[in-house]
Amino acid sequence: MAEAYIVDALRTPTGKRKGALSHIHGADLGAFALKTLVERNNIPAEDYDDVIFGCLDAIGPLAGNIARSSWLAAGLPMHVPGVTIDRQCGSSQQAVHFAAQAVMSGTQDVVIAGGVQTMTQIPISSAMIAAQPLGFKDPFSGSEGWVKRFGTQPVSQFVGAQMIADKWNITRREMEEFSLESHVRARRAIAEGRFAKEIVPIAGLEHDETTRETTIEKMATLEPLAPGGTITAGVSSQTGDASSAMLIVSEKALKKYNLKARARIHHISVYGDDPIFMLTAPIPATAYALKKAGMKLSDIDLVEINEAFAPVVLAWLKETGYPHAQTNVNGGGIALAHPLGATGTKLMTTLLHELERTNKRFGLQTMCEGGGLANVTIIERL
């Protein structure tokens, strides 16, 4: 089978809620990443085969196929198509998978995978809230098949996070210590300039503006999201505004445009688990991916697993036995935010650059996704 290669990867800084990027239209934020990627690579803009973007809650400024409108807003050739996909939080990671599959199949040679989210303007679950006046309180309302299979249990990421903390006996203190470490690692990464090569400044913002100076004592004062629970805002990912993009090409394109591959897509897969627990799928998805790839977890040098909530990562660490020291080494969504549709390629951009910085070979990325799903991507630095 043909190979798919990563030639370039970039992201904007992540803006905090009502922060430096909050005023930028989604199409313009996506356009910035696309235009920058095209301008700094030796491929004529008219030769791109497709643009695949992840985005959730695609209403208002994010509606109307944001991949296509971002490309056009960037002033790029009209004949190049675009498509927007929604695999929940893993949307832009799935965009990488679709781009790689297109290249591996031989049907396309030059594809951009990425994502955009403006969570200040369009908060999480905005699409669901918009449907409530039509009589739909949630996506499952009125589904006889869903109720027959899963009953009327609440389907919520917050409920799922609490269920994970309870099942794996993860204490609030453990979660808060993990969250504090995420901030410590992120602030260190920024101070040492580890993100400098992957971030393209925009609107005067040069660094992620979401890290906090916090303490265990401060987090201990936060109220639980549900009475009697242990999940608080302090152990949850932050919302954010950002875009990210990666250039995926074939070997033919490498030769044609005299490009240097930075990494090879070694493995791609997606796996499902209990949609009520919702956030546990990274655990079986990792085992499934390694089996398919013929690898052991000890073969993996670095892992990026999205910090949607601290117990998601802590349960994965407990089940896999993988070292925390090699996981989210520059912090994660708790400190650096989780801009939904942009997060997949944001994390992979960070993973690629960290493999290069540390001269490591294999990186694995996974993340929990609504519906009880998880994508896994293994990349090999070249």
UniProtKB/TrEMBL annotation:
<feature type="active site" description="Proton acceptor">
    <location>
        <position position="338"/>
    </location>
</feature>
<keyword id="KW-0808">Transferase</keyword>
<protein>
    <submittedName>
        <fullName>Acetyl-CoA C-acetyltransferase</fullName>
    </submittedName>
</protein>
<feature type="domain" description="Thiolase N-terminal">
    <location>
        <begin position="5"/>
        <end position="251"/>
    </location>
</feature>
<keyword id="KW-0012">Acyltransferase</keyword>
<dbReference type="Pfam" id="PF02803">
    <property type="entry name" value="Thiolase_C"/>
</dbReference>
<dbReference type="InterPro" id="IPR002155">
    <property type="entry name" value="Thiolase"/>
</dbReference>
<comment type="similarity">
    <text>Belongs to the thiolase-like superfamily. Thiolase family.</text>
</comment>
<feature type="active site" description="Proton acceptor">
    <location>
        <position position="368"/>
    </location>
</feature>
<dbReference type="Pfam" id="PF00108">
    <property type="entry name" value="Thiolase_N"/>
</dbReference>
<dbReference type="InterPro" id="IPR016039">
    <property type="entry name" value="Thiolase-like"/>
</dbReference>
<dbReference type="GO" id="GO:0003988">
    <property type="term" value="F:acetyl-CoA C-acyltransferase activity"/>
</dbReference>
<feature type="domain" description="Thiolase C-terminal">
    <location>
        <begin position="260"/>
        <end position="381"/>
    </location>
</feature>
<feature type="active site" description="Acyl-thioester intermediate">
    <location>
        <position position="89"/>
    </location>
</feature>
<dbReference type="InterPro" id="IPR020617">
    <property type="entry name" value="Thiolase_C"/>
</dbReference>
<dbReference type="InterPro" id="IPR020616">
    <property type="entry name" value="Thiolase_N"/>
</dbReference>
